[in-house]
Amino acid sequence: MGVYNRAPLAFERGVGARLYTTDGEEYLDCMAGIATTGLGHANPKLVQAVKDQAEKLWHVSNVFTIPGQEKLAKVLTQATGLDVAFFTNSGAEAIECAIKTARKYHWSKGHPERIDIIGFDGSFHGRTLAAVNASGNASYLEGFGPRMPGFIQLPFDDFDALKAAVGPTTAAIIIEPVQGEGGARSLSEQSLKDLRQLCDETGTLLILDEIQCGLGRTGKLFAHEWAEGATPDIMAVAKALGGGFPVGACLATAEAASGMSVGSHGSTYGGNPLAMAVALASMEELTSPELLANVREVAGYFNQQFTGLKDRYPDVILDIRGKGLLIGLKLATPNREMMQHARDQHLLIAGGGDNCVRLLPPLNLTLDEAREAVERLERACDAARAKAKAAA
């Protein structure tokens, strides 16, 4: 279907932060499959995990016990302090599970009226019908029928509006601690703590979407960890969990998941042995203190350098946003043009809402590669400035 506005590039192989086209040209990848190949391309440990498991068992169905699920669930619950996991093939499926879990919780407690899911403008939670209804981009709903009941949209980080909106029919608040597609907007630590307190006071469940901002992207394993005590009741993860292999998870406290009984949810492929093997190998790397320290070091370097770029190119870069290696640059020039200018310099960056571009490099990007990215982006800024002057 003609649903993608694709760039005229075709890649045949990748190594680390490098991608190579079918005609042999090299690109520095600061998209990472949109924050997905978090350990770089063809990561040797992930490749070996695929090979080893592919020779043994791919799929059996959740009719049977799958030992890899139990191992990965233990890794994830120990890392998060949550209690249970449901495995999916994607982030959108993890969000679906999170929404169903929240509503089923209140139903099981004798409050079937508590169905409302409160989301925020600029948010992105996936492309399924429930996920786009929970998201803050109305254009994704165009042509797909009326907005579903039970979904409320509020301004991002407007706590007064949120307090006024939470009521007797509220089931959950769903939020990205750092928005991805919405323009790399980051919640403050205090805002996260206030969210947690409001949910505690009103019996509302807090769903955190850490699909893009989690799993090391901000320099801690999960973005909410920057705010002490701001733990979720339910959390969706995916993207870097499989390093590019499709796998996601919905994690929850035992209490929040107490309504999810046998038969209330399921998946044919979710949690298959192949996905579990890759995710276990990925988690071993993502939880490494050395990797997280690298994220913080490289992010600090980028922040310093991009601040300098903003000072030198105020007619191109208006603002620097995000956290860790989820970096947003709000532009004065159209972001699609900047993405093309960057590609002309063989640098791959992503688009974003509010006329931003995002840099989402592999978490193991080296400082030398970061310097190279800054140099290529500076040349892209030169090109953007020249084009704007020519147009004037």
Question: In short, what is this structure?
Answer:
This protein has 392 residues and is of the alpha/beta class. It contains eleven helices and 15 strands. The two termini are 38 Å apart.
SSE layout:
Elements: E1 11-15, E2 18-21, E3 26-29, H1 32-35, H2 44-54, H3 67-80, E4 84-88, H4 91-108, E5 116-120, H5 129-134, E6 151-154, H6 159-165, E7 170-175, H7 189-202, E8 205-209, E9 234-237, E10 248-252, H8 273-286, H9 289-312, E11 317-323, E12 326-331, H10 335-344, E13 347-348, E14 350-352, E15 356-359, H11 367-391
Parallel strand pairs: 3-13, 5-6, 5-7, 7-8, 8-9
Antiparallel strand pairs: 1-2, 2-3, 4-10, 9-10, 11-12, 12-15, 14-15
Helix pairs in contact: 2-8, 3-8, 9-11, 10-11
Give start-end ranges of low-pLDDT stretches. none
Helix proportion range: 25-40%
Q: Shape, please?
A: globular
Mean pLDDT: 97
Lateral arrangement of strands in the main beta sheet: 4-10-9-8-7-5-6
Number of strands: 15
| Strand content range | 15-25%
- Which H/E pattern describes the elements? EEEHHHEHEHEHEHEEEHHEEHEEEH
Cα gyration radius (Å)? 21 Å
**Helical segment tally?**
11
How would a crystallographer describe the biggest sheet? 7 strands, mixed
The CA-CA distance between the termini, in Å, is: 38 Å
**Secondary structure category:** alpha/beta
